Amino acid sequence: MSKVCHGTLEKRISPGSSVNTRSSKRTSLYLWKIFATAYPAEFNQISHRYLLKPSSKKMAVTNYLKLLSSASVDWTAVVSLSVELFEPHEFLEVANVRNLIGLEIRTQPKRTEFGYEATVSVSDRVIKGWSEQALTGQAFEHLQILVLRLQTGLTEHMFAYLNAFPTLNAFLMQGCPRLYSKEAREMAEKHGWVPFVVHYSDHSLYKIIENMDSELESQTQDCRLMCIDSLPVVDFSLYCRNLRSLHSEEQILFRRKYRATDHLSLQEKKAQKTHNGSDIAPSQPDSKQNKRVVKESCKKDMKGLLDQFKYDSP
Asked: Which of 77, 104, 207, 286 pairs with 141 at a CA distance of 20 to 30 A?
Protein backbone atom coordinates (compact mmCIF):
# COMPACT_ATOMS: atom_id res chain seq x y z
CA MET A 1 0.00 0.00 0.00
CA SER A 2 1.45 3.33 -1.03
CA LYS A 3 1.73 6.06 1.54
CA VAL A 4 2.06 8.79 -1.09
CA CYS A 5 -1.00 10.85 -1.91
CA HIS A 6 -0.89 12.83 -5.16
CA GLY A 7 -2.89 15.94 -4.58
CA THR A 8 -4.87 18.88 -5.79
CA LEU A 9 -5.79 22.16 -4.16
CA GLU A 10 -9.46 21.75 -5.01
CA LYS A 11 -12.17 20.63 -2.59
CA ARG A 12 -13.78 17.47 -3.96
CA ILE A 13 -16.11 16.69 -1.09
CA SER A 14 -19.86 17.11 -1.17
CA PRO A 15 -21.89 17.32 2.06
CA GLY A 16 -22.68 13.88 3.44
CA SER A 17 -20.27 12.07 1.16
CA SER A 18 -17.41 9.85 2.31
CA VAL A 19 -13.96 9.54 0.79
CA ASN A 20 -11.68 6.53 0.99
CA THR A 21 -8.21 8.04 1.28
CA ARG A 22 -6.63 4.66 0.55
CA SER A 23 -8.02 4.48 -2.96
CA SER A 24 -8.38 8.14 -3.93
CA LYS A 25 -5.59 9.07 -6.34
CA ARG A 26 -6.20 12.80 -6.13
CA THR A 27 -7.37 13.63 -2.65
CA SER A 28 -7.71 17.36 -2.04
CA LEU A 29 -5.23 19.06 0.26
CA TYR A 30 -8.18 20.38 2.24
CA LEU A 31 -9.40 16.86 3.04
CA TRP A 32 -5.91 15.54 3.68
CA LYS A 33 -5.25 18.26 6.27
CA ILE A 34 -8.53 17.47 8.06
CA PHE A 35 -7.53 13.81 8.49
CA ALA A 36 -3.93 14.72 9.38
CA THR A 37 -5.18 17.03 12.13
CA ALA A 38 -7.86 14.74 13.53
CA TYR A 39 -6.00 11.41 13.33
CA PRO A 40 -2.27 12.20 12.93
CA ALA A 41 -0.89 8.84 14.10
CA GLU A 42 -3.37 6.62 12.25
CA PHE A 43 -3.44 8.76 9.12
CA ASN A 44 0.35 8.88 9.03
CA GLN A 45 0.32 5.13 8.43
CA ILE A 46 -2.18 5.46 5.59
CA SER A 47 -1.09 8.61 3.78
CA HIS A 48 2.21 9.81 5.22
CA ARG A 49 3.23 11.99 2.29
CA TYR A 50 1.04 14.43 0.36
CA LEU A 51 2.78 15.26 -2.93
CA LEU A 52 1.74 18.61 -4.36
CA LYS A 53 3.47 19.78 -7.56
CA PRO A 54 1.57 22.52 -9.42
CA SER A 55 2.54 22.67 -13.09
CA SER A 56 2.68 26.46 -12.98
CA LYS A 57 2.25 29.36 -10.59
CA LYS A 58 -1.47 30.11 -10.13
CA MET A 59 -1.23 32.52 -7.20
CA ALA A 60 1.27 34.36 -5.02
CA VAL A 61 3.92 32.29 -3.26
CA THR A 62 2.61 33.66 0.04
CA ASN A 63 -0.78 32.03 -0.60
CA TYR A 64 0.83 28.66 -1.31
CA LEU A 65 2.79 28.92 1.93
CA LYS A 66 -0.39 29.63 3.89
CA LEU A 67 -1.94 26.41 2.56
CA LEU A 68 1.04 24.38 3.77
CA SER A 69 1.30 25.92 7.23
CA SER A 70 0.21 24.30 10.48
CA ALA A 71 0.73 26.53 13.53
CA SER A 72 0.16 23.57 15.87
CA VAL A 73 2.43 21.30 13.77
CA ASP A 74 -0.22 18.67 13.04
CA TRP A 75 1.78 17.90 9.89
CA THR A 76 5.19 18.96 8.59
CA ALA A 77 6.14 20.60 5.30
CA VAL A 78 8.96 20.12 2.80
CA VAL A 79 9.08 23.04 0.36
CA SER A 80 11.04 23.53 -2.89
CA LEU A 81 10.70 26.78 -4.85
CA SER A 82 12.30 28.69 -7.71
CA VAL A 83 13.62 32.13 -6.81
CA GLU A 84 12.03 33.63 -9.91
CA LEU A 85 8.54 32.96 -8.52
CA PHE A 86 9.05 35.15 -5.42
CA GLU A 87 8.15 38.79 -5.07
CA PRO A 88 10.88 40.60 -3.09
CA HIS A 89 8.76 40.90 0.06
CA GLU A 90 7.75 37.23 0.00
CA PHE A 91 11.09 35.76 1.06
CA LEU A 92 10.46 36.64 4.70
CA GLU A 93 6.99 35.07 4.49
CA VAL A 94 8.66 31.64 4.47
CA ALA A 95 9.14 32.08 8.22
CA ASN A 96 5.36 31.88 8.71
CA VAL A 97 5.40 28.17 7.88
CA ARG A 98 5.98 27.06 11.47
CA ASN A 99 5.91 23.36 10.54
CA LEU A 100 8.66 23.68 7.89
CA ILE A 101 11.31 20.94 8.18
CA GLY A 102 12.96 21.18 4.75
CA LEU A 103 13.48 24.17 2.43
CA GLU A 104 15.01 24.23 -1.04
CA ILE A 105 15.62 27.36 -3.12
CA ARG A 106 16.97 27.19 -6.66
CA THR A 107 17.38 29.35 -9.75
CA GLN A 108 16.69 28.54 -13.38
CA PRO A 109 19.74 29.73 -15.35
CA LYS A 110 19.15 31.62 -18.59
CA ARG A 111 21.08 31.18 -21.79
CA THR A 112 23.41 34.09 -22.57
CA GLU A 113 26.25 34.63 -25.04
CA PHE A 114 28.59 33.26 -22.38
CA GLY A 115 26.49 30.14 -21.75
CA TYR A 116 23.95 29.49 -19.01
CA GLU A 117 23.97 32.00 -16.18
CA ALA A 118 21.86 32.42 -13.05
CA THR A 119 20.41 35.91 -13.31
CA VAL A 120 18.57 36.03 -9.96
CA SER A 121 19.64 34.75 -6.57
CA VAL A 122 19.00 35.00 -2.87
CA SER A 123 21.74 36.89 -1.06
CA ASP A 124 23.35 36.85 2.37
CA ARG A 125 20.82 39.51 3.28
CA VAL A 126 17.93 37.06 2.84
CA ILE A 127 19.66 34.44 4.99
CA LYS A 128 20.32 37.12 7.60
CA GLY A 129 16.64 38.12 7.54
CA TRP A 130 15.60 34.51 8.12
CA SER A 131 18.12 34.18 10.95
CA GLU A 132 16.73 37.28 12.66
CA GLN A 133 13.26 35.78 12.49
CA ALA A 134 14.61 32.50 13.89
CA LEU A 135 16.19 34.37 16.81
CA THR A 136 12.74 35.47 17.97
CA GLY A 137 11.96 31.82 18.68
CA GLN A 138 8.80 32.10 16.59
CA ALA A 139 10.12 30.94 13.21
CA PHE A 140 12.09 28.05 11.69
CA GLU A 141 11.75 26.11 14.96
CA HIS A 142 11.67 22.75 13.14
CA LEU A 143 13.78 23.41 10.03
CA GLN A 144 16.26 20.52 9.67
CA ILE A 145 17.69 20.94 6.18
CA LEU A 146 18.32 23.91 3.88
CA VAL A 147 19.16 23.37 0.19
CA LEU A 148 20.40 26.20 -2.02
CA ARG A 149 21.13 25.60 -5.71
CA LEU A 150 22.63 28.03 -8.24
CA GLN A 151 22.56 30.95 -5.81
CA THR A 152 25.35 33.15 -7.17
CA GLY A 153 24.66 35.96 -4.69
CA LEU A 154 25.69 33.96 -1.62
CA THR A 155 29.08 34.40 0.05
CA GLU A 156 30.98 32.59 2.78
CA HIS A 157 29.58 35.07 5.32
CA MET A 158 26.19 33.32 5.24
CA PHE A 159 27.58 30.60 7.55
CA ALA A 160 27.60 33.13 10.38
CA TYR A 161 23.80 33.27 10.21
CA LEU A 162 23.06 29.53 10.15
CA ASN A 163 23.62 29.13 13.89
CA ALA A 164 20.41 31.06 14.49
CA PHE A 165 18.34 28.10 13.26
CA PRO A 166 17.91 25.88 16.35
CA THR A 167 17.24 22.52 14.66
CA LEU A 168 19.10 22.98 11.37
CA ASN A 169 21.63 20.15 11.05
CA ALA A 170 22.18 19.92 7.28
CA PHE A 171 22.92 22.46 4.56
CA LEU A 172 23.23 21.25 0.96
CA MET A 173 24.80 23.52 -1.62
CA GLN A 174 25.11 23.09 -5.39
CA GLY A 175 26.20 25.57 -8.03
CA CYS A 176 26.90 28.44 -5.61
CA PRO A 177 30.34 29.64 -6.85
CA ARG A 178 31.65 31.41 -3.74
CA LEU A 179 30.67 28.56 -1.43
CA TYR A 180 33.17 26.20 -3.12
CA SER A 181 36.09 28.38 -2.07
CA LYS A 182 38.69 27.69 0.62
CA GLU A 183 37.41 30.73 2.50
CA ALA A 184 33.90 29.27 2.57
CA ARG A 185 35.18 25.94 3.94
CA GLU A 186 37.11 27.73 6.66
CA MET A 187 34.15 29.91 7.58
CA ALA A 188 31.86 26.87 7.68
CA GLU A 189 34.20 24.95 9.99
CA LYS A 190 34.59 28.02 12.20
CA HIS A 191 30.84 27.98 12.79
CA GLY A 192 30.60 24.24 13.41
CA TRP A 193 29.86 22.85 9.93
CA VAL A 194 31.69 19.90 8.36
CA PRO A 195 31.59 19.54 4.53
CA PHE A 196 31.12 16.30 2.56
CA VAL A 197 30.91 15.71 -1.16
CA VAL A 198 27.69 13.83 -1.91
CA HIS A 199 26.06 12.37 -5.01
CA TYR A 200 22.29 12.51 -4.83
CA SER A 201 20.92 11.20 -8.12
CA ASP A 202 17.35 12.06 -7.12
CA HIS A 203 17.18 15.80 -6.51
CA SER A 204 13.79 15.60 -4.80
CA LEU A 205 14.23 17.22 -1.38
CA TYR A 206 11.99 14.64 0.25
CA LYS A 207 14.09 11.78 -1.16
CA ILE A 208 17.30 13.53 -0.10
CA ILE A 209 16.04 13.72 3.47
CA GLU A 210 15.07 10.03 3.35
CA ASN A 211 18.44 8.93 1.98
CA MET A 212 20.74 11.33 3.80
CA ASP A 213 21.99 9.00 6.52
CA SER A 214 22.66 6.08 4.17
CA GLU A 215 24.65 8.46 1.94
CA LEU A 216 26.87 9.52 4.83
CA GLU A 217 27.22 6.35 6.88
CA SER A 218 30.42 5.34 5.11
CA GLN A 219 31.97 8.77 5.76
CA THR A 220 31.05 9.44 9.38
CA GLN A 221 29.60 7.62 12.34
CA ASP A 222 28.19 10.85 13.78
CA CYS A 223 24.97 10.96 11.76
CA ARG A 224 21.71 12.28 13.15
CA LEU A 225 18.52 10.96 11.72
CA MET A 226 16.29 13.41 9.86
CA CYS A 227 12.89 13.26 11.52
CA ILE A 228 10.49 12.95 8.62
CA ASP A 229 8.42 9.87 9.49
CA SER A 230 6.93 10.91 12.82
CA LEU A 231 4.17 13.10 11.33
CA PRO A 232 2.31 13.38 8.01
CA VAL A 233 4.20 15.63 5.59
CA VAL A 234 3.21 17.89 2.70
CA ASP A 235 5.85 17.65 -0.04
CA PHE A 236 5.41 20.83 -2.09
CA SER A 237 7.46 21.95 -5.09
CA LEU A 238 6.93 24.77 -7.55
CA TYR A 239 9.64 25.35 -10.12
CA CYS A 240 10.08 27.25 -13.32
CA ARG A 241 9.42 25.06 -16.35
CA ASN A 242 12.13 23.13 -18.19
CA LEU A 243 14.63 23.06 -15.34
CA ARG A 244 18.20 22.67 -16.52
CA SER A 245 20.01 19.56 -15.29
CA LEU A 246 22.51 20.15 -12.48
CA HIS A 247 24.34 16.82 -12.69
CA SER A 248 27.57 18.57 -13.71
CA GLU A 249 27.56 20.72 -10.56
CA GLU A 250 29.24 19.26 -7.46
CA GLN A 251 27.02 18.83 -4.40
CA ILE A 252 28.47 19.75 -1.01
CA LEU A 253 26.62 18.75 2.13
CA PHE A 254 27.52 20.61 5.32
CA ARG A 255 26.58 18.75 8.49
CA ARG A 256 26.43 20.57 11.81
CA LYS A 257 29.06 19.22 14.19
CA TYR A 258 28.28 21.69 16.97
CA ARG A 259 26.27 24.85 17.40
CA ALA A 260 28.04 28.04 18.37
CA THR A 261 26.31 30.00 21.12
CA ASP A 262 26.69 33.40 19.46
CA HIS A 263 23.25 33.05 17.87
CA LEU A 264 20.66 31.88 20.38
CA SER A 265 16.96 32.64 20.28
CA LEU A 266 15.41 34.89 22.92
CA GLN A 267 13.85 31.84 24.59
CA GLU A 268 17.17 29.96 24.60
CA LYS A 269 19.02 32.92 26.10
CA LYS A 270 16.39 33.24 28.80
CA ALA A 271 16.56 29.52 29.57
CA GLN A 272 20.35 29.62 29.70
CA LYS A 273 20.28 32.65 31.97
CA THR A 274 17.83 30.95 34.32
CA HIS A 275 19.91 27.76 34.33
CA ASN A 276 23.03 29.71 35.27
CA GLY A 277 21.14 31.37 38.13
CA SER A 278 22.12 34.87 37.02
CA ASP A 279 18.58 36.18 37.30
CA ILE A 280 17.96 34.90 40.85
CA ALA A 281 17.88 37.69 43.43
CA PRO A 282 20.30 37.16 46.34
CA SER A 283 17.88 38.44 48.98
CA GLN A 284 15.51 36.01 50.69
CA PRO A 285 11.79 36.82 50.39
CA ASP A 286 9.57 36.56 53.46
CA SER A 287 7.47 33.42 53.97
CA LYS A 288 4.28 34.95 52.56
CA GLN A 289 6.03 36.11 49.42
CA ASN A 290 7.83 32.79 49.12
CA LYS A 291 4.54 30.92 49.30
CA ARG A 292 3.09 33.04 46.53
CA VAL A 293 6.12 32.58 44.35
CA VAL A 294 6.05 28.80 44.81
CA LYS A 295 2.37 28.68 43.90
CA GLU A 296 2.93 30.73 40.74
CA SER A 297 5.91 28.57 39.86
CA CYS A 298 3.80 25.43 40.17
CA LYS A 299 1.21 26.92 37.86
CA LYS A 300 3.89 27.75 35.31
CA ASP A 301 5.40 24.28 35.56
CA MET A 302 2.00 22.67 35.12
CA LYS A 303 1.23 24.84 32.12
CA GLY A 304 4.57 23.87 30.62
CA LEU A 305 3.82 20.18 31.12
CA LEU A 306 0.40 20.54 29.53
CA ASP A 307 1.83 22.48 26.61
CA GLN A 308 4.45 19.80 26.11
CA PHE A 309 1.83 17.07 26.34
CA LYS A 310 -0.28 18.87 23.75
CA TYR A 311 2.71 19.23 21.43
CA ASP A 312 3.91 15.65 21.82
CA SER A 313 0.50 14.01 21.56
CA PRO A 314 -0.08 12.19 18.25
From this structure: 207
Cβ atoms within 10 Å, residue 240: 16
The string of DSSP letters for 89-154 reads: GGGGGGGG-TTEEEEEEE---EEETTEEE------HHHHHHHHHHHHTTSSSSS--EEEEES-TT-
Question: Closest Cα to residue 49, out of 5, 1, 80, 7?
Answer: 5
Pairing of strands 100-106, 110-112: unpaired
CB 28 within 8 A of CB 11: yes
Query: For the segment 208-254, what is each residue's pLDDT rounded down to a tens digit?
Result: 988 876 655 545 444 444 567 889 999 999 998 766 677 788 999 99
% of the chain exceeding 70 in pLDDT: 67
CA gap 194, 257 in Å, rounded: 6
Question: Is there a contact between 161 and 185 (Cβ–Cβ < 8 Å)?
Answer: no
**Among 240, 207, 267, 201, which residue's Cα sits nearest to residue 83?**
240
Helix, strand, coil shares, percent, the chain, to 5: 40, 20, 45
DSSP track, 160-229: HHHTTSTT--EEEEES-GGGGSHHHHHHHHHTTEEEEEE--S---HHHHHHHHHHHHTTT-S-------S
Is 3 a residue whose pLDDT tops 80? no
- Tell me the three-class secondary structure of 161-172, residue by residue: HHCCCCCCCEEE
Q: In Å, how far from its chain's centre is CA 29?
A: 20
pLDDT digits (tens, 9 = 90+) for 249-276: 899 999 999 876 655 545 555 544 544 4
Cα gap 306→312, rounded to integer Å: 10
For the cut 90, the answer to whether the pLDDT of residue 285 exceeds it is no
Going by C-alpha positions, the residue among 276, 288, 313 that lies closest to residue 72 is: 313
CA distances 25 to 52, 108, 235, Å, are: 12, 30, 16
Is the pTM higher than 0.85? The answer reads no
